[in-house]
Amino acid sequence: MAREKRSLDIVNGNLFRNFLIFAPPLMLSNLLQCMFRAADTVVVGHFSGENALAAVGSTTMLLSIFTWSLGGLSSGADVVASQLFGQKNEDGIRKTVSTGISIALICGIGCLLLGQLFGKAFLQLIGVPANIMGQALLYIRIFLFCMPFMALYNFGAALIRSSGDTRRPTVYLSVGGALNLVLNVLFVAGFGWDVAGVAIASVIAQMLSTGLVLFHLLRIEGVLHLDLRSLRIDGVIAKKILTIGIPSAVQSMMFSISNIVVQAAVNSFGELAIAGNTAAISLEEFMYVTLSAVSQTCVTFTGYNVGAGKPSNVKKVLAMTMGLAIGLSLVTGGIEVLLGPQLLSIYSDNPSVIAAGMCRMRGVVLFMFLNAIMDVFTCSMRGMGTSAVPSAITVVGICGIRVLFVKTVFAKARDLQLLYYCFPLSWVVTSSVQAVFWILVFRRLFAKKNSNGDRQTSC
After folding, report:
1. How far, in Å, are 237, 288, 449 from residue 95 at the CA level?
2. Phi, psi of 456, deg, nearest 5
3. Is residue 400 exposed (0-12), middle (13-18) or buried (19+ Cβ within 10 Å)?
4. pTM exceeds cut of 0.90
5. CA-closest candidate to residue 156, choices 229, 148, 367
6. What is the 3-state secondary structure (H, E, C) of 73-113?
7. SS3 letters for 264-279?
8. Stretch 126-130: mean pLDDT, rounded?
9. On the CB side of 440, how many CA atoms lie within 13 Å of its CA?
10. How sure is the predictor about 454, in pLDDT bands with cuts at 50, 70 and 90?
């Protein structure tokens, strides 16, 4: 049986050095997850045409509601486990493993059932064109079988990362990603299964990655060991996980719902605009998940130092991750926009599709640093154990501004380029409010200090 190994001292070690050890595998893991989805769009776009590409793209908003919500829920397990590691509470960590995996299984099955029941109604609601409706519905109904496995992977990987190990989840996802790419080409180019082929490939690949994560938890010794015979939900731990995870999941869900309004506006421009939007989102997602690794690192590092009662480190983590996130977004955003036409041509060589994709890239990718600022503030507060209010601020700011923009400014001047400027506008307003609230949360959490300026806080 494998032994649990911890290589990072996130409380007393060099924070920047530990970040350079912890974050890169997490970035690679996120990029590989992005490759799962990008492989679908690239393969189907080249071998099945623009309509098939548009069909897969038209499902993005619905599927993102589930995938990002599950990711948000798993952040609750990450924060709770990280704080318990900081406190060296072994019994609490064991209960978190059992409870987290149980919650994941329930939520994953719930997403599968909800998607199957309401998938068609959702696609009709956002105005998916009739000529691609059949393909879009087929893709959704197959892909949804990923949900239970995706939930288990997210929670399992979050628990492993909370111990300071980001390498293993990355390796496991790499294996699944490689299989996904091979099966995409085989099923679509070889067997001619089109959208069904890429969906089936995604399900099989996700099953493999999840199986590897669970196998690791089952065979490892120590506090992260998963014992299926004693699998149960601890009420106290579940409340802590859900208190942090549910607001994060709702925030992710509302992001997706607000983007539905944007997607519906894009749909009104026709199949080529949808295809261009799909390709641009795929490229945008590579950038977003890279920045997300910085935010996820902020959650874990903050949780550890809150558990250990180190307010000075919490501030250092915020400053370090904020600087890195802004720098990364400016560099990668500039490169993506500069090479935009060439990158978009990977998905489709149709000039109209590329032109539509560039509209989104100019309106969203160039301003992604604003989203990075907002995310780091939110994740820092989440690591401090405060999730509901920052999530509410984000939901109101992001969703409210985007919906209002579409219903007013865009409604008066129906221009595709103008539509995408609702994204940076919403980020500016929301991140400004989050900055003020972060100061309040930090001061409240560390209001009472011992003679050294630190105090022990409970999870």
Report:
1. 7, 32, 29
2. -80, 130
3. middle
4. no
5. 148
6. HHHHHHHHHHHHHHHCCHHHHHHHHHHHHHHHHHHHHHHHH
7. HHHHCCCHHHHHHHHH
8. 82
9. 9
10. very low
